[in-house]
Each structure stands twice: as structure tokens, then as C-alpha cells.
Fold this sequence. Notes:
Strand content: 15-25%
Strand order of the largest sheet: 2-1-5-3-4
Distance between the termini: 103 Å
Oligomer: single chain
Largest sheet: 5 strands, mixed
Structural class: alpha+beta
Shape: globular
Order of helices and strands: HHHEEHHEEEH
Number of strands: 5
Amino acid sequence: MEAPADIDGTSAAETEVAPPDYSTDSVKKARLHSSLAALLEDPILSDVPKKPNLSDVDTLISLELGSAMRISVLKLDGSSFDVAVMNSATVKDLKLTVAKKVNEMEQSKMGHRQISWRHVWENFCLLYHNEKLLDDNAGLQNYGIKNNSQVQFISYVRSRASKKHSRRRKYRFLHGLKQNT
Length: 181
């Protein structure tokens, strides 16, 4: 005997809804993101960025294990923020970490905003105990920077003695010479 048909002609067996499949990738990702969001709200994990990548987490783990250091960066307005870098980090690594941290802070405050870090590093530098951190390839430990040290931004313009010009300036200078001849 057949199952009774509904008004639209389908049987009750055909209209039953299958139980939700919790093993799909989208459901797994949603559960992972909700768990991660809940973890990041924990005050103990306040130093973890809102959208952490593997290197951020690795650096923070290294900080806990003692193979990384926390450095406080004093801005020109007197406020400061902390960054974490490996003990073997160079000045360039510190600059990249500072740029990433500032970009994250600006994104959270003002939304999408682009900062020209090339312009920043042409006009400002970092200072530690009255010594300018100018050599990007030098290790931070060469300057005596260790865990819980503080560096600060200062205004800095290269002297004419270095005679370094950007490619664009060279191009404009040489292009101007060609037109005059």
C-alpha cells in the first residue's frame, strides 16, 4: 500500500528533510571562526591581532618561550604601543612589524586608510638611547635592544652629504639635461 499523497501530489517520505550535515567545510569554518573570535575576546590573549597569521602566533609563542622580545614604540604624540619581534630580528624586521601594527590600529579606528611607509621612513627614524637605527641590516641586539626596551620615532632627514637621490629625482634631473641639449 502506498503512502498517502499530500495536496501537491508528493508523498510524506519524499518531503522529509534530511538532517543537517555538520561535516561540510562551510560549517567547519564557521565553527572555527566563532571559536577563534571567542578566544580572542579573552583578556589573556589581548596581544594577539584580530586577524592573526601563522607568523604572528609563532612570534607570540616565542615571546612566551623567551626567544622573542617585546619592544615598546613611543610615537611623536607621546602615546606608545608594543610589538613583538624575534631575538635575532634586524632593524628592518622591527620596521616591518611597526608598520603592520600601526596599519592594524588605523584599520580598527578609521577603516581603510593607506600609509606610505616609504615616506615615513624617509622623514622619520627609530631611536634607542640616542642612537638612530639607520642600518636596516643590523641586528637589534647590536644596538643593545633587549626585551622590554623602548624605541621612539624622531624626525630625521638624510643629510646632503649622503648624496642619495631617489630614482625619480635622478630621472627628472637627467631628463632635464637631455631637453636642454
